[in-house]
Amino acid sequence: MTVKNLRYYREKFVRHLPTRFCPGCGNGVILNAFVRALDDLSIPQERVLCVSGIGCSAWIPNPYFSGDSLHTTHGRALAFATGAKVYNRNLKTVVFTGDGDGAGIGGNHLIHAARRNVEITTILVNNMNYGMTGGQTAPTTLYGGLTTTTPYGNPENPFNLTSLVASAGATYVARWSTYHVIELTKSIKEALQNEGFSFIEVLSQCPTQQRRMFGLSGTSSEAPQRILEMFLESTYIRGQPLKNNYLYAIPKKTPEAVFKSVETKLSGFHPKLKIVDHMAFGRIIKINTERVEEVKRSLKDLDDVEKVADPLEGKIELGVFVKCERPEFVKTLHNIIERVGENRYGV
Amino acid sequence: MLKAGKHLVLGNVACAEGAIRAGCRFFAGYPITPANEISHHMSIELPKVGGFYLQMEDEIASISAVLGASWAGAKAMTATSGPGFSLMQEGISYAHMTETPCVVVDVQRSGPSTGQATMPSQMDVYQAKYGAHGDYEVVALVPWSVQEMFDLTIRAFNLAEKFRTPVLLMADGVIGHIMEKLVIPEQVEIVDRRRCSSREAMPFGTDDPSRVPEMPLFGEGYRLIVTGSTHRESGFRDESPKYHAMLVKRIREKILKAESEISDSVGYYLEDPKIVVISYGATARPSFGAVKKARKGGLEAGLFRLRTLWPFPDREIRRLAEAAEKLIVVEMNSGKILREVERASRGCSEVLSLPKIGGVLHSVDEIYKAIMEAYQ
Ligand SMILES: Cc1ncc(C[n+]2csc(CCOP(=O)(O)OP(=O)(O)O)c2C)c(N)n1
Ligand code: SF4
Ligand SMILES: [Mg+2]
Q1: Is there a single domain that holds both residue A115 and residue A264?
Q2: What part of B 75-114 touches A (C-beta under 8 Å)?
Q3: Which of A4, B74, B235, B262 is the most exposed place for a label (fewest CB within 10 A)?
Q4: Residues lining ligand 1, CB < 6 A?
Q5: Which residue of A49, A69, A70 to mutate against B (max B Cβ within 10 Å)?
Q6: Are residues B286 and B147 both part of a single domain?
Q7: Is residue B246 part of a domain?
Q8: Contacts by B365-368 with C-beta closer than 8 Å and gap 24+?
Q9: Which of A20, A29, A132 to mutate to test the pocket of ligand 2 (most atoms within 8 A of CB)?
Q10: Domain at B141, CATH number
Q11: Which of B65, B217, B218 sits opposite A82 (nearest CB)?
Q12: Pocket residues for ligand 2 (CB within 6 Å)?
């Protein structure tokens, strides 16, 4: 990947600035990764059609991407995109959708587009809530999560979207976060080159709505950075060696209140302690140590600690999950046209 | 595709044949009685002419795919019946706002809900007009024969292309499923959307008196921006009162100002009418029989048959109301177009209703009896 200055990308690919996204929103990061991927692959933007539904994430291409874009109805972007792609297969068709848009109201279209293996790259911005409408619960909100419509905690379980889309038949499936920009950009490039349905879920920060969800009680200006670090803390990358020289202590009270007693209890092990934000557990104490088992035993009888979590517990797996081949829909339709011959009238 | 000449075919097949003649090269649909034969025929014929048939996961996806294909350059269509037509309303509203040409066929069946799934009705006529959200003007055609399934489907495409608007073909289960003679001409008149004359063309604004902007397509380098949100002439979103008012006014006026061009109806025995039967689609057939019978018996009865439901022919109805003593509205529902006739006739004559619910067509005698009674 060659890195050019930001101005180059802005002038070439962005129709309008500033965006109307909230400060620190992940949508800008995703737009950035997308145009870099296009540029790296030298795909002429005249050939690119971006289709989106409704939601903050739908605004990434429309109005901001300087190319053809179709901003459709809530959840239906993939169906619109299928129509356009089938009729003009030269269009490099990319769908931007949200978790509510793509997995909630549009979930049916998502699995069917994957099943057809229609050559469309889908980027699903998962901010785990309905951002645009005010932070309601979504089919991706974690169990117990606080949103404006789950004030007592989300009673539902979230989808595992990559498994869902993989089993529906997509031929490229990946998950990244807005922290993992380099990997995300590389993944978008792979998706754009896949002759079939590609799906990338991007965990994205929505500082406006996620502060409640993740219990980020600090100032709003520090929220975006904290969420990004939380994405790093709460994920691991498939296929990469895992560190196991740490543990998490999940405190009964605030981590600040428990910090001292953990420190005292573990003083013999000289661990490095740090308070971190974690998607599954909230604000907890991370304990870096080479003597994991002993530390674990030692923490067992500490009253202030609710539970000790292993490194992988509650973490979300990132990476590329599917890369395979299967007959592509539009190609098959063209084969049928050739087979029935009589193509006297043309398109 | 059938050759030019005479054929004996099903109404739904005639519709599909008309679509292909009109240049339709993209169909997306979802199975539903009594519209299925349109899909069947399209699935066979479209690939032969280099077109695409898609069976989608539901009717929402079907209309959406149609609209996506239209912006990619296709003349595109879907066909359904009541329940599916309801699901398509959001997409139809989007088509109005984005000025996307397309044809939606509703082969009406008897509701509410699943109702009498296999039986005909004319119950969706108001859904055609008011079913979608927001302010817009609808173009809806209504065929009464197999021949008109063919002819009006072609007209639907031509109007859709000319006015950059969704056009509804409000067929019914009778017309979809009857077999009768179809004459396919050697040549049919075809209208294509106005393509962009220059790079500067505004896809959502125009000074042209038609109020219909030129239509660029995806993939042509226009960096087109299409949205169902309120937008400026360029397509760029702007939800200000000014732009919204301008846009909605234009998309309504492009239809309203062309009413005399779009609106289409046929009169029979209307020289000296005392009683005028007003009907459309399948119910116009027994109405025609009844009027002929009444004429034979020396009664001054006539038939006014609507071939477009929307825009509604207010002026013609007013003229009839002024000339006749009584109007009888014959329709296969509990009395819907009746209200339009009452409104348009403005009290100039008595308006009677001959509704029919139950999924069956009126008999000639039922209508004849109503004419006789009105005559007394
Ligand atoms: C049919 C319909 N229902 C509801 C809405 C209202 N609506 C607008 S945006 C939105 C939420 C979008 O959430 P998501 O897809 O997660 O996008 P985000 O804003 O979080 O990026 C909803 C429900 C709508 N526009 N259309
Ligand atoms: S509400 Fe959330 S997703 Fe929407 S713009 Fe603001 S931060 Fe971004
Ligand atoms: Mg969301």
Answers
A1: no
A2: 76, 90-91, 94
A3: A4
A4: A 54-57, 74, 98-101, 125, 127, 129-133, 138
A5: A70
A6: no
A7: no
A8: B365/B290, B366/B286, B366/B290, B367/B277, B367/B286, B367/B287, B367/B289, B367/B290, B367/B291, B367/B328, B367/B330, B368/B289, B368/B290, B368/B293, B368/B294
A9: A132
A10: 3.40.50.970
A11: B65
A12: A 21-22, 25, 27, 56, 127, 131-132, 206-209
Name the residue range of residue B92's domain: 5-184
Mean pLDDT of B171-189: 98
**H or E segment and range at residue B251:** helix B241-256
Centre of ligand 1 from the C-alpha of residue A133, in Å: 6
Strand, coil or helix: B50: coil
- Taking CB atoms and an 8 Å limit, are A112 and B49 in contact across chains? no
Within a domain: residue B135? yes
Classify residue A56: in a domain, yes or no. Answer: yes
DSSP letter, residue B199 = T
Beta bridge partners of A85: none
Average pLDDT over residues B126-131: 98
Q: How far is the CA of A101 from the centre of ligand 1 (A)?
A: 6
How many other CB atoms are there within 10 angstroms of residue B234's CB atom?
15
Chain B closest-CA separation from residue A32 CA (Å): 18
Read off φ and ψ for residue A168, nearest 5 degrees: -75, -20
pLDDT of residue A221: 93
pLDDT for A4:
87
Pocket test for ligand 2, best of A208, A226, A227 (most atoms within 8 A of CB): A208
A140-196 per-position pLDDT tens digit: 999 999 999 999 999 999 999 999 999 999 999 999 999 999 999 999 999 999 999
Please give the pLDDT value at position B347. 95
Number of domains in chain B: 2
State whether residue B64 is helix, strand or coil: helix
Query: Helices (H), strands (E): how many in chain A?
Result: 12, 12
Note whether residue B303 is domain-resident: yes
pLDDT digits (tens, 9 = 90+) for A226-273: 999 999 999 999 999 999 899 999 999 999 999 999 999 999 999 999
Question: Is B54 in contact with A83 (Cβ distance < 8 A)?
Answer: yes
Ligand 2 centroid to residue A99 C-alpha, Å:
13
Residue B269 DSSP symbol: S
Q: What's the gap in Å between A185 CA and the centre of ligand 3? A: 20
Percent over 70 (pLDDT), chain A: 98
Q: For an interface test with A, which of B225, B230, B231, B237 has the most A Cβ atoms less than 10 Å from its Cβ? A: B225
Cβ separation B68–A84 shorter than 8 A: yes
Which residue, B169, B184, B199, sits at the end of a domain? B184
Rg (CA), chain A: 22
Indicate the residue of A63, A71, A84 with minimum beta-carbon distance to B218.
A84
Q: From its phi and psi, is residue A342 left (phi > 0), alpha (psi between -120 and 50) or beta?
A: left
Candidate from A82-91, A160-169, A262-271, B95-104 with smallest mean pLDDT = A262-271
- The verdict on residue B216 lying in a domain is no
Quick one: pLDDT band at residue A275, thresholds 50, 70, 90? Answer: very high
Task: Given the cut 0.90, state whether the ipTM is greater than it.
Answer: yes
Q: Is B338 on the interface with A (CB under 8 A)?
A: no
CB B150 within 8 A of CB B144: no
pTM of the model: 0.97
Amino acid at residue number A95: V
Per DSSP, helices labelled H in chain A are 6-13, 27-40, 77-87, 99, 107-116, 161-168, 181-193, 207-213, 223-233, 255-265, 292-300, 329-339
Tally the domains of chain A. Answer: 2
The gap from C-alpha A66 to its chain's centroid, in whole angstroms, comes to 23
pLDDT band at A218 (very low <50, low <70, confident <90, very high): confident
What residue in A sits closest to B24 (Cα-Cα)? Answer: A347
